[in-house]
Amino acid sequence: MKKVWNKIVSGVRFFFSKAFWVDRVWIPLKRGVRYLFTKQFWKKALTSGGMESFAAALLAILAGLLVGFIIMLFTRPTVAWYGFLTMIGRGLFRAGAKGIGNWLYYVGPLLMCGLAVGFAFKTGLFNIGASGQYTVGMFCALVVGITGDIFGPFQWIVAVIAGMIGGTIWGFLPGFFKAYFNVNEVITAIMFNYIGMYSVNWIIKSSDTLYNSQKALTQRIDDNAFNPVLWLRNWFPESSVDIGFLLAIVIAIVIYIILNKTTFGYELKACGFNRNASKYGGINEKRSIISAMAISGGLAGIGGALFILAPGMASAGIFQGTYYEPADILLANGFNGISVALLGMSNPIGIIASTLFVTYIQRGGYYMQTYLFKEELIDIIVAVIIYFSAAALFVRQFVKKRLLRAKEKRYALAELDATPPPDVPLKQPEPSKESDR
Amino acid sequence: METPYVIEMLHITKEFPGIVANDDISLSLRKGEIHALLGENGAGKSTLMSVLFGLYQPEKGEIKKNGKTVKIHNPNDANALGIGMVHQHFKLVECFSVLDNIILGVEPTKTGFLQRKEAREKVVALSKQYGLLVNPDAKIEDITVGMQQRVEILKMLYRENEILIFDEPTAVLTPQEIVDLMQIMRNLTKEGKSILFITHKLNEIMEVADRVSVLRRGHYIGSVDVKDTTKEMLSKMMVGRNVDFSVHKAPAKPTDIALEVKNLNVISPLSKKHVVNDVSFTVRKGEIVCVAGIEGNGQSELVYAITGLTDPDGGQVLMHGEDITTKPVRYRNDHGMAHIPEDRHKFGLILDYPLSFNMVLKKYHTKDFQNRGFIRFDKVNEYGENLIAQFDVRTSQGNKTLARSMSGGNQQKAIIAREVSTGGDLLVAVQLTRGLDVGAIEYIHKQIVKQRDEGKAVLMISLELDEVMDVSDRILVMFEGKIVAELDPKKTTIEELGIYMAGGKKETHEKGME
């Protein structure tokens, strides 16, 4: 008892000591903030678009973590620091290769949902129905995974394709209503989330082949239908990892290429920016809207398939499988997809990074529970990060304008008037006012 | 200290990132005069007025009212000083009545209750005094643009403003409404109001203004008395070189029929009226046919039906003898129809795409620009660079410039570049020069005549009478959805054309319509 008390007292004393505030808070903060205002940092950050987005995301993440830490300080001040360390990585890396493998296990389905939402964003649509598409895709994959024995060694690939088709149909329908009846896709998609979830639960519960009523879970799928594990379990022994995350990353790259390098992507993005001008340019804008929603749904559907087909933990060489509980709740991955798409700025490559980060911090939240912090804190942190990334975007544009102003001014003047009146001196960029150093 | 000026703006400098919009500009407004502010697009006129109205803060310079220095931080300050502004895009509440719009923000109240009666008396008195007839109970959405402008003017008068700023007030008006507006402006100055009048139309300045100040590219060029100057002098001050107002063209040599419209009907989905009513005409290669008319008489719908943006409700559109009435837009584009749309932001450009992508908007799917579905970026860039150079589109970053960041004139140039380069031989051009300055108009008219001389058929839709008379080879006058007259620009006058456009006269040989 006295030991604990001493620890608390020393903790509180440390919290109020000069050493804590100066060494742990003030100096690093000052250094960081000062670096943000140096020319080198901004020059570096601004030279490339990708670097720019990365810097903005990084700032937002730091801010989100800081808010998370403050909440932890208020809830359990004595262990806040350890909890925080655990959250940002100590927990995961203490678990070693197994920790990393389990982290990657969660990446696949979420990445697919993020891609689904991000792809729709790029084409000017808000696919809030990723959850429903994910659920329907999962269901189709489940049916093939349990009953599709005739496909033999191809059962897995057939199941994934079935999941994709299920999601595609669930995305196609809101797209169709949007294109032909101008019904807002958000409303239709929300409805389809519920229609999908309740239909799936109803069908699963009314079938003994699909449903194990004792456990209130779906039945185990066939071994042939599990996501291949390949060599991954050698690298990450004892973990649940499978090729889901690799497949999702490959798909992300394909989506990136479609969006940026093909005429199809040109059409989709054009419709997203300006429907009227696309029609004027001869693009079939109805078809574009429908394809965008269908593809988006298909991506979420693959996510659902990857989730249910995951082999999960192995005990004594036998995969335990993954199970779906037909509870009347919309699956969260579809909505987390919106978060990662926002954080990744809808760019497929950015979404890979944001998904890796969000699943990483979620795993951190899992380990953080040893210090009796609730996992919900992670959701708060992710939400704060998204808010800050919007703000960072704003700050970045502001700073960029300020920084490039002098240069552009000269350029614009020279361009505007080949012979500016002689009484107009060209403005020289002001010497940068560096603070104390 | 006595001074003849109500407003003096001295050495105003306003900078935006990358550009100096106003560079050391001084402007003084005498009491009771109409002072025009002339300049090309992007010359800094609107910026200067926004500084006066408190929307922008200048980096340098000062503003004096009646000789006293004042600070204008926001439009409320401007209002308190008696400065009012009619914006180019009206700031009215559509579903409110005229009266409610006028008193909005300065409502007379008694213990919290609105005193409409009092307000109405004041508004009626004001509209009688200045000849601004408008029904105070009509809803804004039901009255014409000209009437809406009167409401804006009444708003300023109700607030007892002494200095009235008009930002391009005639851009949205019909010829008759412009005449009325000029009269209103004269009435206002008679009653002691002072007017600042932003425009790039020289005719209006010559007609109504007392003095004119010219800006060019953010610099102050000079102020002159209108009675001591000519249109040519003003345009030289504005553009910096001599501008040729007349369009030089050889007589047309029409050949084959390129476009034939037969009994075309379009029914408005809202009002169920025939907005295009049994319209028939032909356009031959090598001629410019112009559809003249006051805005809203069915010209836009006619163009939508011809270009495939909407389906007609009857009749036929034939291109080179082929029935294309129900063909998709892509088919028409690929078979020789080029279209310069009325609204360049809504239809003409994808504003968030870079310029090169906009240049290939109608061609990206052809073999030249794609290979198995992959965009050939090298070809797209090459094509974009060529067009930019050929048509002298001014951009900040060439191909990579976002269309959104370009000026209106350059956006229009880009669209024209794209459309005349499609290789088609039918060009449908709607309101080519809306909102552009004389320099750009001159250039665009030359391009259109050049297209005609190369053997293209041009169907032009215009609201500007001068443009109709100068550019076209044949004029079709459209009124309430019908073609009411076909005129030869050489044998008709602007006055006659104006009467047809207003529906005052129908051609005698069209007996069927009575």
List keywords for this structure.
heterodimer, A: 437 residues, mainly alpha, ABC transporter involved in vitamin B12 uptake, BtuC, 2 domains, two-stranded antiparallel ribbon, B: 514 residues, alpha/beta, Rossmann fold, six-stranded mixed β-sheet, 17 helices, 24 strands, 32% helix, globular, disordered C terminus
Largest chain interface and its two residue counts? A-B, 32 and 40 residues
Shape of chain B: globular
| Name of the CATH architecture of the largest domain in chain B | 3-Layer(aba) Sandwich
The count of β-strands of chain B is: 24
Number of helices of chain B: 17
Which bin fits the share of residues in helices of chain B? 25-40%
How far apart are the termini of chain A? 50 Å
- The CATH superfamily of the largest domain in chain B is identified as P-loop containing nucleotide triphosphate hydrolases
| Biggest β-sheet strands, sense, barrel of chain A | 2 strands, antiparallel
Query: Given the structure, what is the number of helices of chain A?
Result: 17
Task: Supply the CATH architecture of the largest domain in chain A.
Answer: Orthogonal Bundle
- Strand proportion of chain B, as a percent range, falls in 25-35%
**The top level CATH class name of the largest domain in chain A:** Mainly Alpha
Placed side by side, the strands forming the largest sheet of chain B appear as 6-9-10-3-11-12
Oligomer: heterodimer
